[in-house]
Amino acid sequence: MGYTLVQKIIKDHLVDGEMAPGNEIGLKIDQTLTQDATGTMAYLEFEAMGIDRVKTERSVAYIDHNTLQSGFENADDHKYIQTVAAKHGIYFSKPGNGICHQVHLERFGKPGKTLVGSDSHTPTGGGLGMLAMGAGGLDVAVAMGGGAYYINMPRIVNIELTGKLSPWVSAKDIILEVLRRLTVKGGVGKVIEYTGDGVASLSIPERATIANMGAELGATSSIFPSDEVTRAFLKAQGREEDFMPLVPDADAVYDEHDTIDLSALRPLAACPHSPDNVHPVSELSHVKVDQVCIGSCTNSSLADMLKVAAILKGKTIHPDVSVSISPGSKQVFRMLADCGALSDLIAAGARVLECTCGPCIGMGFSPSSKGVSVRTFNRNFEGRSGTADAQVYLVGPETAAACALTGYLTDPSTLGQAPEITLPENFLIDDRMVLPPCAPEEAREAQVVRGPNIKPVPVGGPLSQSLCADVLLKVGDNITTDHIMPAGAKVLPYRSNIPHLSQFCFYQVDPEFSSRAKQAGKGMIVAGANYGQGSSREHAALVPLYLGIRAVLAVSFARIHKANLINAGILPLTFANPEDYDRIAENNALSIDGLEDITSGKTEFILTNRTKGIQIPLVLDCSERQRRILQAGGLLGYTKNQK
Fold first, then answer.
1. Which of 90, 88, 87 is nearest to 61 (CA)?
2. Cis peptide before 273, with omega less than 30 degrees from 0?
3. Measured CA angle at 356 (ends 354, 358), to 5 deg
4. Are 309 and 278 in contact (CB under 8 A)?
């Protein structure tokens, strides 16, 4: 039996465990990336390990989230990241150089390599044939220190692409179709592997768009073969030597299989408030549009921008619509300027923003109250845009441009003949905004600069034999990390200051949660299915830890958030019987005994609801290593104990 793409890369990087479905495996990591919203904490954790220099082939720190510098906090974090990166062997991508996933694709990604990043959309690298995975900052810190990155051996889903996209249909429509079929929970515990004759018709930026939004499926990663299209992309980036062919064996066996006929697809939109609420754009023509945002790590490549510029050229944006353009990298921005496309966008009435995440994370350009915002982004969770009651639709660049012109959700195929764009054979290469680290002999004297907003990492204590606490919050299904720990311009500057950040925890769900938790001193959270979906931000675990949360009882967990809870020392327990979720209410007094047996392999624990006088079975589904992490009070304490 042959190997799939994923199995080949895992086999070459396996350092612990066996490649059997469901087994925990440890992987050697070749590359890491961080961004500034999660990076400060990741580097504080790396420093706490006491390791002098990263042991990866390449680690890069990007500044792409917190670039609105309305106070000193963001600038201080950037200076800290720059100086800690220089000291410890990490490359530093300056503010303005671009979004981490776009720049990494252009300048650093390599087929066949492993990559973990402190951002859930790190799987964008799968467009290049990498096994790229999002993780919490502490997991990334461990990988930078030479430690293995642990996942459960995923099930591998083969999505076979046949045919070729019609004019006006884009790669965004492919991944929206996948989300329509599989839902936001359909990829949990899986890697999506794309094959078929349709793959050859897709460029690397198109493949990267699809791999990027595999995160919205809950998938561990997504991956494409490395072929002649990959070679051409790397050659255009002046990196042909980084190419290696990588395809699955002809007799590879997959756990699941599906087929998508690209020629049958039509423009699609994810409607509020979930990426899997997908409908044909042609059915939404009654929706009036207030705002259009084009860019983000999903659709900010040169090809995407040129398509939009070609559609808008010589036309005027609808008077009722405000349009933003966020190029994905300085490379894209300069090439748009050099070829005249940037002038076309500006002339049409678009507002050009920085090469950053920006509106995608609510960092500026928020919609009007109850406004309809059409975005080429990857998430449309309620409130994520920075406006609590905004209605956000996710679409491809062609559809976004059509909406900008008409003022309504518009199928772009109604505009007539699709414009054709031509990409250059060679891209503009200028890496002056990527600063290399100090040489090892200079690093000893290098100073790390810490501003007053940078506070210590919260650390959990060793697990006790029993846990008695009240339910401080009960929430439903599909609670996102945006619900737990919001982003946005008011909150993100405090990502390195957990005490201040804690006042925003669950603010959109229950504004009183933080003060109630501080008063209680300790507590538990009860949740429905898919708790913690979305961003990889470990702050959604670190802040509850700081607020005294010791356990989360859920119907099910999203992969990265469950790992982050364990890393923080918070027990992630699931109901043995999902209907028992209804037998617990907020403010109920609960207790869990027998926790001294956590490292014995015991999987079922009994919860006593002391308020109602009933007992409920709970399941701890984690590996032997994760049990030792929980016993030690978190990954930081566990890692120190291993030295």
1. 90
2. yes
3. 90
4. no
Q: Return the structure tokens found at 601.
A: 């392999």
List the one residue out of 23, 153, 148, 219 whose CA is nearest residue 635. Answer: 148
CB atoms within 10 A of CB 464: 10
**Under a CB-based contact definition with an 8 Å cutoff, are residues 215 and 119 in contact?**
no
Neighbours of 520 (CB within 10 A): 14
> What SS3 state is found at 591?
strand
Joined together, the tokens standing for residue 617 give 């079975």
Q: CA angle 201-203-209, nearest 5°? A: 115
Provide the H-helix boundaries in 369-495: 397-406, 440-443, 481-484
Q: What angle do CA 192, 193, 199 make, to 5 degrees?
A: 125
Q: Three-class SS of residue 140?
A: helix
pLDDT tens track for 54-108: 999 999 999 999 888 888 999 999 999 999 999 999 999 999 999 999 999 999 9
Q: With 0-12 CB in 10 A as exposed, 13-18 as middle and 19+ as buried, what is 532? A: buried
Q: How many CA atoms lie within 13 A of 345 on its CB side?
A: 26
What's the gap between Cα 87 and its chain centre?
A: 27
- Following CA atoms 634, 573, 144, 48 in sequence, which dihedral angle do they give, to the nearest 10 degrees? -20
pLDDT band at 375, cuts 50/70/90?
very high
Tens digits of residue pLDDT in 150-180:
999 999 999 999 999 999 999 999 999 999 9
Half-sphere exposure of 82 (CA within 13 A, CB side): 15
Distance between CA atoms of 331 and 578, rounded to whole angstroms?
50
The C-alpha atoms of residue 369 and residue 353 are separated, in whole angstroms, by 21
Token digits of residue 625: 């290593």
Tell me the pLDDT tens digit for each residue of 343-365: 999 999 999 999 999 899 888 89
592 φ/ψ angles, rounded to the nearest 5 degrees:
-130, 120
Residue 607, beta-bridge partner list: 592, 616
- Mind listing the pLDDT tens digit for each residue in 571-622? 999 999 999 999 999 999 999 999 988 988 899 999 999 999 999 999 999 9
